[in-house]
Each structure stands twice: as structure tokens, then as C-alpha cells.
Design goal:
The complex is a heterodimer of chains A (about 950) and B (about 130). Chain A is an all-alpha fold. Helices cover about 70% and strands about 5% of the residues of chain A. In chain A, strands 1-2 form a two-stranded antiparallel sheet. Chain B is an all-alpha fold. The chains are: A mainly alpha (about 950), B mainly alpha (about 130). Chains A and B meet through helix 27, helix 28, helix 29, helix 30 and helix 31 of A and helix 1, helix 2, helix 3 and helix 4 of B.
Chain lengths: ~950, ~130
């Protein structure tokens, strides 16, 4: 069934996250209220959908994004999703209330609630996503938002370290999971969970099953703090207690469990699943419980107890039987209620007594009666004492465990499960006896008393639920049924939620656990001494050493390669490129040549000789920079000729005009740079570089020769066939530029424009800084070397040339669509014409006649090109689809007008503006260096000279 | 013809790489310019060589045409490489004017630099 509410529910917390930061100005109560509103709204919406889910329907909402790639924002809600979404929103509401009273006036509350809502949104996203890629995004978002929440108290080093550790561990797991999910999507052929869940048999039969399983489990285990990744959870307890209660007991750490439950129909039931998941869960359960017993920090005790209970859930899901899966669902509900209540109790004690060290507490029962009741209810449920809900699911867990055979042994699992329960009873009772009971002390850091109502309301409500479900198990019945049904895929075994199941195996195991737990508590003091005396590996030290090692390794590699010498990076880059190319070449096959060599006419050979000679000379003569520049000019010219000969007139035009501008630019720059390159590199270095260079040259030449001798298939036939009919032009290169690949060209002119503006901006800051001052004070650059900077001949010639050059430019531009030419070439030709004016008649003279700012030209160019593209939308076709038509104006022949012409105009303007702005910027240096500016085109006005001569005569 | 083009590309690449590995900004820029020539011709030649077959449609008869796509790509590449060269020149100029020399490696990191202090201040040297 379709439901449009689902995406709204998922997005509400994110929208709501914008509010607290603003609302904190109106006070703390308003801030908390505005945090609660989106949560409450989402919860109400969820409530309206709940009846349909209880009827067994699955609600779906889809927002298509890229249907071709199977990417869409798909949400769905079934029983499991409903259970988790309800938990996330419901506990979120309680936590908001609790946090309002927990946070002190110094804490930035707006920030806290913003993070909290972000986290809530991410978590809701996980449980509502149908598309697994979407799920992965939300998964990563929970890691990020929990990082912010754990490190909320930025001044505490433990908080920062804990946040970093949590992010590193869960982030790494998330990375593994992405891999696993992609494999899964590939195997099934769809990224939709509903499809994946239906294809369980296909997945389990696939040879990719095991890799996918391991990768996905890595994600789930790290998130749900399973052994050996459990260590981050206790360190995350540096977070404020509301965060611990929300993320680290009720929601985020359950995400891994949720995922295993979600994927249960698709992945569970195999031997690999059983041995990996159930074993990990079993180890985690026992180990977590054991450590919890000896923790003195209340929150650490609860953290390890959470680890233990997550292990229990994992184990149940690992059993792979529908009964165990349903027990897991039931225990998720029970654990949520008692553990969140206990965390909040711990927070209250910490808040009021200013310590949560069990050894400094005790006897709180008279001082904090309400907290005592809530804490005791929670702890008894955690211990699994009858009449509290923890008992029910623990009984069922022991029942499931008693029937599990592990590697041929039918006692291993039941014994260890009983041991886990026994330890769990011990630490739960310790929570009651060592904190609340015992003699009242007089050395608490602060005088404890019960907190205000707002602070104990949330845990009290949860404690009420503990008792209600514990005494009347049928209350949870429908929810367990619908969520359990969603996990098992509708395959419902016989089970019943009731207190008395008769005398069975589980009852005996329970009795052993409770008795044993009580005994353990009685001898806790000597055991504690023994525990502290035994050496144990410290997870944080190992983790820190691991991270430090990684940092050293990567730092060593990075600094070894990037030591600040750019010639070294470039050499490494060239050599490794060569090596990769070499590997590819030697490991592959090469086809026999399929083309014949074209003949070489003598003119071409002469050109080649010139090119090679110029190249060799550049290398030999590069210390003399002017000479090298002249030789570079020769190379550019020869390449242009080559383009002419090899059927590329457009390229030849572009190359020759770019060449001209480049040489001018380099000449301008060279005016300010040293004219000689000093001899710095040793012979050995030169030889090394020579070897690298020759190897690179040989490799590239060989590659080029190899593919030129072989035929290939091209997509250009399409362009050739449709150039005239679809693009309205016969110059296919130009039509590709302005039409077929117009979007590329659009991007390219923007890059060029940005380059022009960047040069301008750099020059601006350079001239304002120390370099500018130095330039203004130096008298080195304004030496008039030629004595005639603006020769008469050149001034006259360039002025006469100007209209002709502009006309050539316009001609090239107009014919570009059908003959060689176009916006690029026209822009370059006209900029050369303008540059000649600058050179011949002087900077100021030419500048005074410039009407349009170059910046504006770049801007208009991009705008015109962009608007041409947008205009296509008005005609209802995609961006930059071109339009053309033929018109006849009486005196002229039939004439074509195409929208591509407007686009080309944009290209033209941008190129012209960018080139001019670049050269203009660099020539501004000369002005700052004190070069004088002539007001007239000629420095030596002949008429004045005549006057001087006459004066001399007279 | 193919041999000529391939060897030309090879020479340009070798020269470009050698100059790129020098220690001063100006030769490095020249080297990169040569390397862009090589790359442009390389890309162009991926459309294979053809004489007298420009990709300009001929209304008369069944003409054959060379591959226009590499040409279009190279055309923009030529213009963009000009932009890149210009930005590099700007960097080099800025670095030279700020630092007083146009070495490209960080102080003390220049490989086999004989004496980094010797050539310290080209600007003052040339001024003198």
C-alpha cells in the first residue's frame, strides 16, 4: 500500500533540527519544546499508520530519482520498522524531556538538541529505508551524528577521544558494509530491500554469499559493539547521560541488531550464519557480563551490561530459528525499557551526588526514594527476576539456548548462556545493593536528593512499562507478533508470552542463574581484588597503538614521497605511471597491425626535422630563456602545420593563435623573471632525469604508434550523420563543440573564465603585498632598453591591421558553424589584434579606448552561453538542444540562423575576455615597476622631432 | 606518416618531462607547455591519421571524413592548456617576486642542490 506519510516522517527530524539552534534564544524550555514538536508529530503520524501495519500490510512510498540506475528514495514500513521507529521516536521524546533538566545552564542546549534530532532522523532513515543504498547513507549519518553527540562536551578529552574511537570503529564497519550491500545488490539485481528479502534462497546459493555476509556482519558487529569491536561503547560513555541512554542503549547500538533482524530472511539459516553470529553473540554476552560485574563506574557497568545484552540479541538472531528470532524481538522491547530507565537513573545519581563511582555510593535508598524505586525496578528486570519483563524474554532465551547444538555439543550453549545470565544477575543486584542499600554515608561529594519531576518522569514511565509488561505479558503480544513476523518473513512458530511455562529446562537454568548471581555478589569483595590483580589487555591501549602505528605508517609514506621538493613528486609520478603502463603492456595481448603507413612527403619530413631539432635544442639551450622561448614558438608552428596537413583545419587555427598568445604571455612574464636558468642540478641528477624523460618519450611514442597502426570503432559516425540535419552545420568539429558536446564546452569556458579571474585576483593581492612594494621601489625594470618602445612603423601597421584583423575574427566566427572557425578561434584572433595595439601604441593609450571591462566580457560570455542553453527549456527540450532555421533576406543569399550561434557568441566573449584579462593583469606589473606611460601613440612624435631638429639648425 | 607523428610525440614528451624535472619555475612551465603539445597531438592521433579528409561536410558526392570527435576534444584542450599555462606563469611570477628566486622546491629539500644560499636572491643579483 502506498503511503505519502513515510517520507515526511523520515524527513521531519531533519527539518526539526533547524529549530533548536534558533529557539534557544527564546529560552531552554522553548528550545526543548521545539525539539519535541517534530518528534511528537512524527510519532502521531506513525500512530496513524500503525493500524494498517497491525493488519499485516506493508506500507511503501517511493520518490524516483534515477530509475535507470535503480536509484530511488524508497521507504517502507512493516512490523519491524514500526517497532523500531516507535522506539526511536518514543524514547526520543522521553530523552528530550530528561535532557532539558539534565543539561546545565552552561551547556549549549541548542546545539545538543540539533545533534539529537539529526541523529533521530538518521536512525529513522535506517529503519524506514527500503533502498539499501539509502539505508547506507543513513547508517553513515548515525555514525557522524553520534560522533557529534559523544564529543558534545568538547572540553573533556575523554569525550573527544571516545567520539573519535566510536567514529573510527563504526565508520570502518560501515565501509565494510557498503561493500557487502553492493555485493548483495549485485547478486539480487535490485537494491530494494523488499526484493532482497524475497530472494533469500538465491543469495544463500550464490558464491558471493560468504563475502557479502562477512562484510555486512562487520558493519552490524561494529555498530552493535560485538566482540572484538565492543571496546568503543564504554568509551562512548563520556557523552552526556541522555546521549548514553538514547544512543548507547536504546537506538544506535541496536542498529546492528536491527540490520541482522532485517536481513534475517535473506541471510540467516546457514551454517556460516550460525557459527559466526551465534558464537560472536555468545562470547560477547558472557564477556560483557563478566567485565560489567567489576566496573565501579555506574555508566561503565551499564555500558558493559549493554554489550552483554546486545550479545544476547545477536546470539538469538544467530540461532537462525524463528522462535529465537521472536525472542530477540521481544527482548529488544524489554531491554529498551529497563536499560534506558537504568541509564537515566545513573544520570540522576551522577547529577545529584556528583559521582557515579559505586565504591563512593551506597545507602541512597532513604535520600532518593523515587530514584531508588525506579532503579530497583530496572535492575530487577535486567537480572531477570519474575514479574519484571526482563524475566520473560530471558526465560525464552534460555529455552532457545537449551535446544541449541554447537558443533556436536549440546551442553556448550546452554551452559554459557546460563553463565551469562548468572553474571547478569550478579551485576544487576550489585547495582541495587551497592548503590541504594547499605548504610547511609556522610562522604558523598554532594548531598543527594530526588531530582525535579521533569527529570524522573521519563525513567518512571519506562519503569512502569517494565512492570506492566512483566505482569501482563499479553500487552506486548501484538507488537511482538507483527515485528517478529516481519523478521521471520511470516513464518510464525509456536510461542507464548507468559510468566509460568511450567517446570522445564529454562526454569532450572534461571534458578541456577539467580542463586549463583546472589552468591557472586556476596563474595564480590575478594573477587574484585582478584580481578584487579589479574593482568588484562586494555582495549583502548591496543586501539591507540594501532591508530598511532597507522598514522606513523601513512605519515612515513606521505612525507617520504612528498618532502616539499616538487621535482621529486613529478619524477615519482612519471616513473610510477610508466611502471603501471609497463605492467599493463607486458600482461596484455596486442593485436596485429591492421593499417598501412601513410606516405611521407618531403615537406612533412622537413617539418618533422624542424620540430625534433627545436625540441632537442630547447632541452639543450633551456638555460637561455629567450632562446628557449623562440624555439618553443617553432614547435608550436610545426604542430599547427601538422594539423593542417592531417585534416584538422580547426585545430591548426586554434593552435597557431594560442601559440601566439602563449608566447606573448611568456615574454611578458620573462621581463620580470631572471633571463638565465642557473646550473643547479648535478650531472647525476641530469642523467637520472634524462633516463626518465627518454623512457617516458619512448613509451608514449610506442603507445601512439601502436594504436595508430590499428583500426578502431568510433562513435563519430553518429556526429557526421547528424551534424547537418540535427545541428544545422557542416563543420562537424564546431557542431560537436556547440551542440553535441555543448555542455562540455560550457564547462570549459567557465574554467577559462575562472582562470582569467584567478590571475587577476592573484595579481591584485600580489601588488598590494610586499612584492608590490619591492617592485615600486626597484628601478631595475623600467630601463628603456630599445630607446624606441613604440616604433612608428609598428604603430601605423597595427592600426591599419586592426579593422582587418577584427573583420577576419568576425568572419571566422560567422562561418564557424559550416567552415573551419568558430568562437574559440575568433576570440583568440581578436585578442591578438587587441594585444598588438597594446604593444605598438602603449598600455594607457590602448586602455583608454577600451569600452568594455574584461571581467564583464567573461561574465556576459558565460551568461549568454548559459541562457542559450536555458532557452531550450522554454521550448520543452533538454538543456542546450540547438535550434536552427533558414531565412532569406532579399539582397543576401539564403542565410542560416542557429541558436548555436548565440552559444558560440558566449564562447567568443569568454575567450576574448579571459585572454585579455590574463595579459592585462601581467602587464600591470610593469606599471607598478615604474614604467612610464605615453599618452600619445608615439613616444617620439616626428613633428616634435622636426621642431627639435629645426631648433638645432637655427 | 604514423612513425613521424609517433616519434614527434615521443620527442615532445621526453623534452617536456626532462624540463618539467628541472629546479626552476620557467623551465618547468616550458616543459609543461611541451607536454601539453604532446598530449594534444596524442589525443588527436587517437582518431587515426588522414590526409585531405577534413570533417567539414561536403555537399557534393560521397566524401569520407576523418574522426571529428578527437579534434573537438583537442580544440578545447588547447585553449584550456593556455589557461593553465597562464595561471602557472602567474604563480611563478608571484613566487619570484615574493621570494626573490624562482626555485620550485622547498628550502633544503632541493635534491642535490649544491648550496641553497648561493643563488638565494636572483632579484637583487639582477638588479645590481
Amino acid at each position: 500500500m502506498q503511503s505519502n506519510l513515510l517520507p515526511i516522517i523520515a524527513i521531519l527530524p531533519f527539518l526539526g533540527a533547524l529549530m533548536p539552534g534558533v529557539m534557544i534564544r527564546a529560552g531552554r524550555n522553548t528550545c526543548a519544546t521545539f525539539t519535541a514538536i517534530p518528534t511528537l508529530l512524527a510519532l502521531v503520524m506513525l500512530g496513524t499508520l500503525a493500524p494498517a501495519v497491525f493488519r499485516g500490510e506493508v506500507l511503501i512510498a517511493e520518490i524516483e530519482w534515477l530509475p535507470q540506475l535503480g536509484l530511488s528514495a524508497r521507504f517502507f514500513l512493516d512490523g519491524l520498522g514500526l517497532l523500531f521507529a516507535g522506539m526511536i521516536l518514543g524514547v526520543g521524546l522521553l530523552i528530550t524531556l530528561y535532557a532539558r533538566f539534565y543539561l546545565s545552564a552552561q551547556d549549549p542546549m541548542g546545539q545538543f538538541f540539533t545533534y539529537l534530532l539529526l541523529f533521530q532522523g538518521a536512525m529513522l532513515g535506517i529503519v524506514l529505508s527500503d533502498n539499501i543504498l539509502l539505508l547506507l547513507i543513513f547508517w553513515e549519518l548515525t555514525s557522524l551524528s553520534s560522533f557529534l553527540l559523544i564529543g558534545y562536551w568538547k572540553h573533556l578529552p575523554e569525550g573527544r577521544q571516545g567520539a573519535r574511537m566510536a567514529l573510527a570503529v563504526t565508520g570502518a564497519g560501515g565501509l565494510a558494509m557498503i561493500g557487502g550491500m553492493l555485493i548483495l545488490g549485485n547478486v539480487v539485481g535490485s537494491y530494494n530491500l523488499t526484493d532482497i528479502l524475497a530472494a533469500g534462497e538465491q543469495i544463500k546459493a550464490s558464491e558471493w554469499y560468504l563475502p557479502a555476509l562477512i562484510l555486512i556482519l562487520l558493519g552490524a558487529f561494529t555498530k552493535s559493539a560485538q566482540f572484538p569491536f565492543h571496546f568503543w561503547l564504554p568509551h562512548a560513555m563520556a557523552a552526556p547521560t541522555p546521549v548514553s541512554a538514547y544512543l548507547h542503549s536504546a537506538t544506535m547500538v541496536k542498529a546492528g541488531v536491527f540490520l541482522m533482524a532485517r536481513m534475517w530472511p535473506a541471510l540467516a539459516g546457514t551454517d556460516a550464519w550460525f557459527y559466526i553470529v551465534a558464537t560472536t553473540g555468545l562470547i560477547t554476552m558472557v564477556m560483557g557480563a563478566l567485565i560489567a560485574l567489576f566496573k565501579d563506574d555506574l555508566k561503565a557497568l551499564l555500558a558493559f551490561s549493554t554489550v552483554s545484552h546486545l550479545g544476547l540479541l545477536t546470539m538469538l538472531l544467530g540461532f537462525g530459528t524463528p522462535f529465537a528470532a521472536i525472542v530477540a524481538v521481544f527482548h529488544i522491547i524489554n531491554h529498551l525499557t529497563f536499560k534506558a530507565a537504568l541509564f537515566m537513573t545513573a544520570g540522576i545519581i551522577d547529577h545529584e551526588a556528583h559521582t557515579r563511582d559505586i565504591k563512593r555510593l551506597g545507602g541512597l535508598r532513604h535520600l532518593m526514594p523515587i530514584t531508588f524505586v525506579i532503579g530497583t525496578v530496572g535492575a530487577l528486570s535486567m537480572a531477570g527476576i519474575p514479574l519484571f519483563n526482563g524475566f520473560l524474554s530471558k526465560e525464552m532465551m534460555l529455552d532457545a539456548a537449551s535446544e541449541t547444538v554447537w558443533n556436536g555439543s549440546d551442553w556448550a550453549v546452554p551452559v554459557l548462556a546460563t553463565l551469562g545470565s548468572l553474571l547478569s544477575v550478579a551485576y544487576s543486584l550489585r547495582f541495587i545493593f551497592h548503590v541504594f542499600l547499605g548504610p547511609k554515608r556522610d562522604d558523598y561529594p554532594a548531598k543527594p536528593h530526588d531530582p525535579p519531576f521533569g527529570m524522573w518522569a521519563s525513567p518512571a514511565l519506562l519503569a512502569l512499562m517494565v512492570v506492566a509488561i512483566g505482569a501482563m505479558p499479553w500487552l506486548a503480544g501484538p507488537l511482538v507478533a507483527v515485528a517478529g513476523g516481519a523478521v521471520t518473513g511470516g513464518d510464525m512458530p509456536y510461542y507464548s508470552l507468559k510468566i509460568w511455562h511450567g517446570v522445564n529446562m529454562a526454569l532450572f537454568m534461571s534458578i541456577i542463574a539467580i542463586t549463583g548471581g546472589a552468591i557472586l555478589l556476596a563474595i564480590h569483595r575478594p573477587l574484585d581484588r582478584l580481578w584487579n590483580a589479574t593482568p588484562r589487555p586494555e582495549a583502548k591501549t591496543i586501539f591507540d597503538a594501532l591508530i598511532a602505528g597507522l598514522v606513523r605508517l601513512t605519515g612515513g609514506i606521505a612525507l617520504g614521497l612528498h618532502n616539499g621538493a616538487i621535482s621529486r613528486y613529478l619524477a615519482i609520478f612519471v616513473v610510477s605511471t610508466l611502471a603501471i603502463g609497463g605492467v599493463a603492456f607486458w600482461s596484455g595481448d596486442i593485436l596485429a597491425p591492421s593499417r598501412e603507413l601513410l606516405p611521407v612527403p618531403p615537406v612533412v619530413l622537413a617539418g618533422w626535422v624542424l620540430l625534433v631539432a627545436a625540441t632537442v635544442l630547447v632541452v639543450l639551450q633551456h638555460r637561455n630563456r629567450f632562446r628557449a622561448l623562440v624555439l618553443i614558438g617553432i614547435i608550436g608552428l610545426m604542430i599547427s602545420f601538422g594539423f593542417v596537413y592531417l585534416s584538422a583545419p580547426d585545430l591548426a587555427l586554434t593552435q597557431i593563435s594560442v601559440e601566439t598568445v602563449t608566447i606573448m604571455l611568456l615574454l611578458l612574464a620573462l621581463h620580470f623573471l631572471p633571463k638565465e636558468t642557473p646550473l643547479e642540478s648535478s650531472v647525476a641528477l641530469q642523467a637520472r632525469d634524462g633516463v626518465i624523460a627518454v623512457a617516458a618519450g619512448l613509451a608514449v611514442a610506442g603507445l601512439a604508434y601502436a594504436f595508430m597502426m590499428r583500426d578502431f570503432s568510433t562513435i563519430s559516425d553518429y556526429h557526421l550523420a547528424n551534424s547537418k540535419t540535427g545541428g544545422g552545420g557542416t563543420n562537424v568539429v564546431n557542431v560537436i563543440l556547440v551542440d553535441f558536446r555543448g555542455y562540455d564546452t560550457y564547462g570549459e569556458i567557465i574554467v577559462l573564465g575562472v582562470a582569467g579571474l584567478a590571475i587577476f585576483a592573484l595579481m591584485e593581492s600580489l601588488l598590494r603585498g610586499a612584492a608590490g612594494r619591492r617592485l615600486r621601489n626597484s628601478h631595475h625594470y623600467n630601463v628603456d632598453r630599445s630607446r624606441d618602445r613604440h616604433p612608428l612603423m609598428m604603430v601605423v601597421a597595427t592600426r591599419a591591421m586592426m579593422p582587418i584583423a577584427v573583420m577576419v575574427g568576425i568572419y571566422l566566427f560567422l562561418r564557424g558553424h559550416n567552415q573551419p572557425g568558430g568562437g574559440f578561434v575568433a576570440g583568440l584572433v581578436i585578442s591578438i589584434a587587441l594585444l598588438m595595439q597594446y604593444m605598438a601604441s602603449g598600455f594607457a593609450w590602448a586602455q583608454r579606448r577600451q569600452r568594455i571591462e574584461y571581467h564583464a566580457m567573461i561574465g556576459w560570455g558565460c551568461v549568454i552561453a548559459g541562457l542559450t542553453g536555458v532557452a531550450s527549456w522554454l521550448a520543452g527540450v533538454p538543456f542546450l538542444t540547438s535550434w536552427f532555421g533558414y531565412f532569406e533576406f532579399p539582397p543576401i543569399e539564403e542565410f542560416e540562423l542557429a541558436s548555436a550561434l548565440a552559444f558560440d557568441l558566449g564562447v567568443f566573449l569568454t575567450v576574448l575576455g579571459a585572454v585579455m584579462l590574463m595579459l592585462f593583469s601581467i602587464s600591470r606589473l610593469a606599471r607598478h615597476a615604474g614604467e612610464t606611460v605615453n599618452k600619445e601613440p608615439l613616444e617620439y612624435d616626428p613633428s616634435k622631432a622636426v621642431g627639435r631638429i629645426r631648433e638645432g639648425e637655427s | 606518416m604514423e612513425l613521424i607523428v609517433a616519434s614527434g610525440i615521443g620527442f615532445l614528451t621526453a623534452g617536456g618531462v626532462y624540463l618539467m624535472l628541472r629546479l626552476r619555475a620557467f623551465p618547468v612551465i616550458l616543459g609543461l607547455a611541451m607536454l601539453s603539445y604532446a598530449v594534444n597531438v596524442f589525443l588527436f592521433s587517437s582518431g587515426r591519421l588522414a590526409v585531405n579528409m577534413p570533417p567539414v561536410l561536403n555537399p557534393y558526392g560521397d566524401a569520407t571524413y576523418t574522426d571529428p570527435l578527437p579534434q573537438a576534444l583537442v580544440l578545447t584542450a588547447i585553449v584550456i592548456s593556455f589557461g593553465m599555462t597562464a595561471v602557472l606563469v602567474m604563480f611563478a611570477l608571484g613566487a619570484f617576486l615574493e621570494a626573490g628566486d624562482d626555485q620550485i622546491n622547498m628550502d633544503g629539500q632541493g635534491e642535490e642542490l649544491d648550496d641553497p644560499d648561493e643563488e638565494k636572491d636572483d632579484l637583487t643579483e639582477t638588479r645590481a
